[in-house]
Amino acid sequence: QVQLVESGGGLVQAGGSLRLSCAVSGSIFSINGMGWYRQAPGKQRELVATITSSGSTNYADSVKGRFTISRDNAKNTVYLQMNSLKPEDTAVYYCNANLRRRSFSAGMDYWGKGTLVTVSS
After folding, report:
1. Cα–chain-centroid distance for residue 30?
2. What's the confidence (pLDDT) of residue 103?
3. Which residues contact 92 (CB under 8 A, 6 or more apart)?
4. How far is the C-alpha of 93 from the C-alpha of 79, rounded, in Å?
5. What is the mean predicted confidence (pLDDT) over 102-107?
6. If we measure between CA atoms, which residue out of 89, 110, 97 comes closest to residue 43?
7. How many CB atoms lie within 10 A of CB 49?
8. Please, what is the average pLDDT of the chain?
9. DSSP the chain
10. Above 90 in pLDDT, residue 117?
11. Mean pLDDT (whole number) for 25-35
12. Which of 121, 99, 76, 85 is nearest to 9 (CA)?
């Protein structure tokens, strides 16, 4: 059983900061890419940021310069530091991990249940 558990969401005023965490637990051989996605009310889920196992990062244009993704491989945890938050950042944020459960397994995507971030104006 693999679990991804997000934490750190909440209500913040515009211009404020939040830090999201996502811990991966269970029977895991290795974790490849990890990332954060978000889904605002009435909209499709969209990519926020990704990070490879070696630390290469990718960001959506809308968050570049404001959000920073990082990971702690020893803790199987990925973080999202969100600064200068805007009302349009309001969404449920989902953690994603592509991981292998066995050495001979192909990588598969797993998702957390999401954490709500609300930015008030």
Report:
1. 18
2. 87
3. 38, 39, 114, 115, 116, 117
4. 12
5. 90
6. 89
7. 23
8. 97
9. -EEEEEE--EEEETT--EEEEEEEEES-SEEEEEEEEEE-TTS--EEEEEE-TT--EEE-TTTTTTEEEEEETTTTEEEEEE-S--GGG-EEEEEEEEEESSTTSPPEEEE---EEEEEE-
10. yes
11. 95
12. 85
Residues 93-116 have a mean pLDDT of: 95
pLDDT confidence of residue 32 = 94
Query: pLDDT tens across 50-104, in order?
Result: 999 999 999 999 999 999 999 999 999 999 999 999 999 999 999 999 999 998 9
Q: How far apart are CA 84 and CA 67, in angstroms?
A: 8
Nearest one of 20, 50, 19 to 35, comparing CA atoms: 50
pLDDT at residue 2 in the model: 95
86: buried, middle or exposed (CB in 10 Å: 19+, 13-18, 0-12)? middle
Residue type, 61: D
C-alpha distances (whole Å) from 7 to each of 12, 61, 85 are: 15, 24, 17
